Amino acid sequence: MGKFVVEGKNPLLGEIKVQGAKNAVLPILAATILADGECVLHNVPDLRDVSKTELVLRRLGCPVKREGHDLTVKPAELCSCRICEDLMREMRSSIIFLGAVISKCREASVSMPGGCPIGLRPIDLHLKGLRDLGVEISEEHGYINCRAKKLVGCEIHLDFPSVGATENIILAAVYAEGRTTVQNAAREPEIIDLASFLNKMGARITGAGTGTIYIEGVKEPLHGTEYTIMPDRIAAATYLAAAAATDGELLLTGTEPKHMGAMLHVLNEMGMKLKVFGDTIHIKHGKRLSGVHMLRTMPYPGFPTDIQSPFMAVAALAEGTSVFTENIFENRFQHVDELIRMGADIKVAGRSAVIRGVKNLYGANVVARELRGGAALVIAALAAEGRSEIGGIEYIDRGYEAFEKQLSSCGGIIRRE
Ligand code: UD1
Question: Catalytic: 116?
Answer without folding.
Answer: yes
